[in-house]
């Protein structure tokens, strides 16, 4: 199976069952799932969570409980703007500036834009923990997103600046359907799963409502932006890359 075939298998499984949660349909997105709250609670029990002062999270619905729990715990949260479209592409949610009664509003997709402070990559604090959204994962840390590649680009930009590094834990919260080598795998027990690409960021923790997997991943982390893989059109669409591209690009 290639990555798109894996995505289709996961989306088909969510379509066919009763595990999907709003927004619908679950296709062409990071699927929200029954038990997302429980998975967030499991993540909050890990040492990586307890020691984190700063979290970068994706803005998708299944990680909403993670964002809320982080702010309630006093953790600074960064969320990237969609498609890195702004020159200051990270929105900073500071728990010291958001009243507890407003945390629920501040962590929704619309609320992040209202409460978040646009921040340039150079001004992002060191990120201790990343909560990534995933369509499919494996227990050795491979991750497949929805196919646009922005999560990996966010890592690459921040890695160039030292805001993420070997000390940054990368986690995801998913339904067991998305654990491709797990007992409820949407891909099937005998699926020939694709290997990660060089720009893919591997996972240290896979957290479902039922279990927490420490992957001990064998896959290397990208050490920056693969400029040779980015065409002129992609650069022109993403100001943060266009401004920082080597001159020969």
TrEMBL record:
Gene Ontology MF terms in the entry:
ligase activity
SUPFAM superfamilies linked to this entry = NagB/RpiA/CoA transferase-like (SSF100950)
Q: Which residues form a coiled coil?
A: none
Q: Name one GO cellular component term.
A: cytoplasm
Q: What Pfam families does the record point to?
A: 5-FTHF_cyc-lig
- Keyword Ligase in the entry? The reply is yes
**Which Gene3D superfamilies does the entry mention?**
NagB/RpiA/CoA transferase-like
Q: Do the record's keywords include Ligase?
A: yes
- What domain of life is recorded for the organism? Archaea
Per UniProt, which keywords does this protein have? Ligase
Q: What is this protein called?
A: 5-formyltetrahydrofolate cyclo-ligase
Organism of this sequence? Halorubrum distributum
């Amino acid at each position: 199976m290639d990555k798109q075939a894996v995505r289709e298998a996961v989306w088909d499984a969510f379509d066919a069952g009763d595990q999907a949660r709003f927004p619908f349909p679950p296709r062409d997105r990071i699927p929200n799932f029954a038990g997302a709250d429980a998975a967030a609670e499991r993540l909050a029990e890990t040492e990586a969570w307890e020691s984190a002062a700063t979290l970068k999270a994706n803005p998708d619905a299944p990680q909403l409980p993670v964002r809320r729990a982080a702010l309630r715990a006093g953790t600074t949260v960064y969320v990237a703007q969609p498609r890195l479209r702004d020159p200051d592409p990270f929105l900073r949610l500071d728990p010291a500036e958001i009243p507890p009664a407003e945390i629920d509003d501040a962590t929704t997709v619309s609320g992040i834009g209202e409460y978040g402070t646009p921040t340039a990559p150079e001004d992002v604090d060191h990120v201790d923990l990343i909560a990534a959204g995933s369509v499919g994962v494996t227990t050795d840390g491979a991750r497949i997103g929805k196919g646009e590649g922005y999560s990996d680009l966010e890592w690459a930009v921040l890695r160039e600046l030292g805001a993420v590094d070997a000390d940054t834990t990368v986690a995801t919260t998913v339904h067991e359907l998305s654990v491709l080598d797990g007992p409820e795998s949407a891909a099937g027990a005998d699926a020939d799963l694709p290997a990660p690409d060089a720009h893919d960021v591997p996972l240290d923790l896979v957290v479902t409502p039922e279990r927490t997997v420490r992957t001990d991943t064998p896959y290397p982390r990208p050490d920056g932006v693969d400029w040779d893989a980015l065409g002129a059109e992609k650069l022109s669409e993403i100001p943060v890359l266009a401004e920082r591209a080597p001159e020969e690009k």
